[in-house]
Structures are given as structure tokens and as C-alpha cells.
Write a structure and sequence with these properties.
Elements: H1 2-56, E1 62-66, E2 69-76, E3 83-86, H2 97-103, E4 109-112, H3 129-142, E5 149-154, H4 157-167, E6 172-178, H5 183-187, H6 191-212, H7 215-224, H8 229-236, H9 240-253, H10 258-268, H11 271-291, E7 302-307, H12 312-324, E8 328-333, H13 340-343, H14 345-361
Parallel strand pairs: 3-4, 3-5, 5-6, 6-7, 7-8
Antiparallel strand pairs: 1-2, 2-4
Helix pairs in contact: 2-14, 3-4, 6-11, 7-10
């Protein structure tokens, strides 16, 4: 009898464990199904929002069709010499809103979105500075920008304009570099810089995931309505470094017109933006190495405007770029830091006016 009881109890225990395991398995599958459904709904909602954005929010400039891509260009003002604006690493034509309006009072001004950014189509190629310089020249030729023209570029744009000026020197009246990156800055990476690049790539790819799920769009929507509690918590989950970087960028954006900020936030709602950002960050050392073999020809007037926040090493590199030119100037902006075209646009306007005046005194003929 005792043996039978033991046998029966053992059977009951095994059945109990089996029931528990089945229940746990069903519960786990149910949780996974719920999570998958929620994520699926979020992705579907994000796709719908992107589609609605495409119908409601249109490119502020003109879409220029080239053989293998479409380029978004904003043109304003009239008069010569024309000035072409080249943006920072993942910035677009929208970042020039303040300066372009000021320059357009007396010149024809062009700003554009590089491939994969803003409203310009992607090329699917890797980041090569020489390729970006060629792509810039393609739309300049397509729009028949009057020659010679002045080039102005911020930060990463210093790489592109260095290559462009050497390749198309006969078309250029002058170059204005706004707190530019230098090849020396990113060719020999120390441990801190390598970590900075790794974190930048990770953060960008994570941003693409958050954007695809619609979380970023929701956070930007809250920010627009003055609620920053949830966005700060979301940023905090990526670490203090990422949080500080994004808050600095958002602080700079606040200096732009409200309509421009809305357009930038809408662009940030696309995962594509973050994937392109990751590609640029990853290619930065290779781009610096590529550019080290180029110089802006000495006969081209060059004005370098440095942020006062720069280290002595960076300032000496900026000064060397200006001194290489026969008509070079080095200016240190007293206000703000890296985004000089938002803090002191008058410095860039004056640099352009000086170049235009020099062309006038030398009777430089502008092609129509």
C-alpha cells in the first residue's frame, strides 16, 4: 500500500511539474506575441506617419534630377558672385536658414542636401570625399551657377571643399571655412577618439531602431509641446554622453526659425537619417586620410573662421590653412563655439563681402 501511495504521489508531482511547464511556456509565448504585436503596430504607425509626412511636408527647395540621383537645392537671392554653401557632417540645407537669408540680400545663394540626407536621394555608395566633391560639381553644372563662385562650408565640409578647390580651381573665386575639420584631427586616432567613433556608430544605429519604432517621433512630438520629461528619460537610457550631445544639438537648433526646426525634426523621424550618420562617423578616419593629399591652391583667397573653443593645436592648423593662401585670413569668432553660422553669421557675411569687393577691384568677369 505504501509503495502504491508513493507511486501515486510521484505521478502527481510529475503531472504538476508538466502542467507548470506547459503554463510557463504558454505564458512566455503570450508575452512574446504581445510584444511582437505592439512592435508591429508601432512600426506600422511609423510607416504611416512617414507616408503622411511625404504628403503634407514638401521640400522647401527644388529637386534637381541628375542621371543617377535627385538633389535637393535651395536657391535664393540674386547677384554675383554666387555663393555655394556646404553643410556639416549630417546637416542639411536647413542648417543655413539664418545665413542664407542674410546673404540673399545681395547675392545668389545655393545650399543643398548631400546624398542620403534631407530630401536628396541616396546613392548607396560608401563615403568618399572625392565622390562628394564630384557630386557637388554635378548639380552646380546642372543649375549653371555663374562662375567664379564662392564656396563656404562648415565643419566636415572643410574636407569636401579642400578636394573640390583642387579639382575645380578655375571655377572658384574664394573659399570660406567655418570651424573646419582638419585631416590631422582624425588621421592618427588616440584611444579616446576610437571610443568616440565606436559610441557614435552605436548611438546612430540605436537611433535608427528607436526611430523605426516611432519612439523618437513621439519624443519629438512631446518636445514640441513643451514636455521634456519623457524625452530626457529616453536619452538617459543611452548614457550621459549621448544625452549631453543630443541636448547640445537641440540647443543649437533652437536658434533656427521655428518652421525650420519643425522640418528638421520631421527629417529626424526617418531611420534613414541615423543610418547615414553611422556611415559618416565610421568613415571619418578614412575620409581624413583621403583629404590629407589635397590642398586648396594658393592663388584662391581663403578665410578660415575658428570657434574660440578650439584647442591651440586646432587653431594652429586653421591658421596654417589660411597662411597657405596668398590672400588668406584667419579669424577667431568670439561668441558661441562650433556653430558660428548660427551665433555670428555676420562674420561670414563680411568674409563674403570682402571677397566680392576684391573681385570687383580686380575686374573679375563672371560668366552668366
Amino acid at each position: 500500500m505504501i509503495n502504491n501511495i508513493d507511486s501515486d504521489c510521484s505521478l502527481c508531482l510529475r503531472c504538476g511539474r508538466s502542467i507548470d511547464n506547459d503554463f510557463n511556456g504558454v505564458a512566455l509565448l503570450t508575452v512574446i506575441a504581445i510584444i511582437a504585436s505592439v512592435l508591429g503596430l508601432q512600426i506600422a504607425a511609423q510607416i504611416l506617419c512617414i507616408w503622411l509626412d511625404g504628403r503634407k511636408i514638401h521640400a522647401p527647395g527644388t529637386l534637381v534630377k541628375l542621371p543617377n540621383r535627385t538633389v535637393h537645392v535651395q536657391q535664393s537671392g540674386s547677384g554675383t558672385p554666387a555663393i555655394v554653401l556646404e553643410s556639416g557632417v549630417t546637416a542639411t540645407s536647413l542648417s543655413w536658414s539664418i545665413l542664407q537669408a542674410q546673404l540673399a540680400a545681395f547675392a545668389t545663394v545655393y545650399s543643398y542636401d548631400r546624398a542620403g540626407l534631407g530630401w536628396s536621394s541616396a546613392t548607396g555608395r560608401q563615403c568618399h570625399v572625392s565622390q562628394m566633391a564630384d557630386e557637388l560639381h554635378q548639380w552646380i553644372e546642372a543649375l549653371r551657377v555663374p562662375k567664379p563662385y564662392v564656396l563656404a562650408g562648415h565643419s566636415y565640409a572643410g574636407y569636401i571643399l579642400r578636394v573640390y578647390a583642387q579639382r575645380f580651381a578655375d571655377e572658384i573665386a574664394g573659399v570660406i571655412l567655418i570651424d573646419p575639420l582638419t585631416p590631422e584631427e582624425w588621421t592618427k586616432l588616440d584611444r579616446a577618439q576610437r571610443g568616440q567613433i565606436r559610441r557614435g556608430i552605436w548611438f546612430s544605429r540605436a537611433g535608427a531602431v528607436v526611430s523605426a519604432l516611432g519612439v523618437l517621433r513621439f519624443c519629438l512630438w512631446l518636445l514640441r509641446r513643451g514636455n521634456n520629461t519623457v524625452p530626457r528619460r529616453v536619452l538617459g537610457s543611452f548614457g550621459s554622453g549621448a544625452k549631453g550631445t543630443v541636448e547640445r544639438i537641440v540647443g543649437e537648433l533652437a536658434k533656427l526659425p521655428k518652421r525650420t526646426v519643425r522640418l528638421i525634426r520631421e527629417r529626424w523621424g526617418h531611420p534613414k537619417f541615423f543610418l547615414v550618420m553611422a556611415r559618416y562617423i565610421q568613415a571619418l578616419p578614412a575620409c581624413a586620410a583621403e583629404v590629407s593629399g589635397y590642398e586648396i591652391p594658393a592663388h584662391i583667397p581663403v578665410t578660415v573662421i575658428s570657434g574660440a573653443h578650439q584647442t591651440g593645436i586646432r587653431l594652429s592648423e586653421h591658421k596654417a590653412i589660411a597662411e597657405h593662401s596668398q590672400h588668406g585670413r584667419h579669424i577667431i569668432a568670439a561668441k558661441g563655439a562650433h556653430w558660428i553660422h548660427l551665433d555670428q553669421p555676420e562674420l561670414i557675411v563680411q568674409a563674403f563681402c570682402d571677397m566680392a569687393e576684391r573681385m570687383k577691384t580686380e575686374n573679375v568677369v563672371v560668366s552668366k
